[in-house]
Write a structure and sequence with these properties.
Blueprint (H helix, E strand, L loop, with lengths): L4 E5 L3 H17 L4 E6 L1 H5 L3 E5 L8 H4 L3 H18 L3 E4 L3 H13 L3 E5 L10 H9 L2 E4 L2 H8 L5 E3 L20 E5 L4 H21 L4 E5 L6 H5 L6 E4 L7 E5 L2 H9 L3 E5 L3 H8 L9 H6 L6 E3 L5 H13 L1 H18 L4 H13 L1
Parallel strand pairs: 1-2, 1-4, 2-3, 4-5, 5-6, 6-7, 8-9, 8-11, 9-10, 11-12, 12-13
């Protein structure tokens, strides 16, 4: 019997983790399945052949891509060749829409099935992607409940499989009010840290003048060097691998803001990019909020400070307001409990693996 073949493409750390969980689930039911493509260390350790590594995509925003466009295009041509030469039964792209939607299109032109996992945020910007996905995919595994109805309205075979973070839902953290421990989460890439961390440090110093008893920490994201970050922050900020206990988080918009909500840690969402990236993005954005907790709830409940509004003074002001307002703290905690209830706890990796097996058969 011919071995089943799966080509997967993941381009950053969280997708690497989520894809690795799918690979383990696939291998638990079929140890001989052949999995290859683009991935990271967790996918490789789970048994995937990484023909290319996700380091090829360690860029952020429009302007960051331009210097590496020739190399990225060469990798894309290499993936096209993998599809033609090794003839996978199915292609599974994860997130990374600017690259992976082209991969999906190439697979469909080669009459190969496509199951896209972790949808492009077409509901937020570049609406045309929803229509395109109906043409280039056989299935779209989405990780937020509201995405299923949205994509189905454009003819996409979309299914909510659950969020990877909810496979084994983390326990709620013990959060104190007023906060005694504040965490800084400025991002997982150096170029975004350089833009966001200065405002966080400035806010920290303002807050410290009012509340000298508060302790501070900065979790070091995978792929970052602790020594480099130590040279960028105040000496009284404790660096850690993983999030220690915290009562309040100043966090870059993205996966971490959703994670704080699931953990039940009050937060202030921050975002800043280059002027060019921001102006280009604003031309396409269709939603008022950028923080996933606010998008899920359909409410403006978690403070968001974006671009020129992200300053040391505004960030400190929001934090001091949360520190001094117990009612606001309790409203945030109630909202986060609603988010956990909305998400449920389906096993995303098992759902995606089963869908892959069904589509192959």
């Amino acid at each position: 019997m011919r071995r089943k073949k799966v080509l997967m493409v993941a381009g950053e750390a969280s997708a690497d983790r989520h894809a690795a969980a799918v690979i383990r689930s696939l291998r638990s039911s079929d140890p001989d399945v052949e999995i290859f493509g683009i991935g990271g260390p967790e996918m490789a350790s789970s048994g995937m052949e990484c023909v290319y590594t996700m380091d090829e995509f360690s860029v952020m925003g429009f302007s960051d891509v331009l210097p590496r466009i020739r190399r990225i295009y060469a990798v894309y041509r290499g993936v096209q060749e993998l599809i033609r030469r090794r003839r996978p039964d199915i292609v599974v792209p994860l997130d990374l829409p600017d690259f992976n939607m082209r991969v999906a299109g190439a697979a469909r032109r080669n009459h190969t099935k496509v199951l896209y996992y972790i949808a492009p945020q077409a509901w937020a910007w570049r609406l045309g992607r929803a229509r395109t996905l109906s043409e280039i995919t056989d299935g779209l595994a989405v990780i937020f409940p509201f995405e299923q109805e949205f994509f189905r309205s454009y003819g996409v075979n979309a299914r909510y499989v659950g969020h990877p973070l909810m496979e084994n839902p983390p326990a709620l953290r013990q959060v104190a009010w007023p906060p005694k421990r504040i965490a800084l989460l400025p991002g997982s890439r150096y170029h975004e840290i350089e833009l966001i961390l200065p405002a966080m440090l400035g806010a920290k110093r303002i807050i410290q003048g009012r509340h000298p008893d508060i302790t501070w920490q900065l979790p070091v994201a995978p792929g970052l060097e602790e020594g480099v970050l130590a040279g960028m922050v105040d000496r009284d900020i404790a660096l850690s691998r993983g999030l220690a206990e915290a009562d309040l988080a100043l966090v870059k918009s993205g996966t971490s803001s959703f994670e704080m909500a699931i953990l039940g840690i009050p937060e202030i969402i921050c975002y800043k990019t280059s002027w060019l990236n921001y102006r280009l993005a604003r031309a396409f954005v269709q939603v008022e909020n950028i923080g996933m907790p606010n998008i899920i709830l359909g409410e403006d409940i978690v403070p968001e400070l974006i671009q020129e509004h992200l300053t040391a003074e505004t960030l400190a002001g929001e934090a001091l307001d949360l520190i001094g307002d117990r009612g606001r703290h309790e409203r945030l905690m109630a909202a986060f409990a609603r988010i956990r209830e909305t998400m449920g706890s389906p096993k995303a990796s098992q759902g995606v693996a089963h869908w892959i097996e069904t589509m192959i058969h």
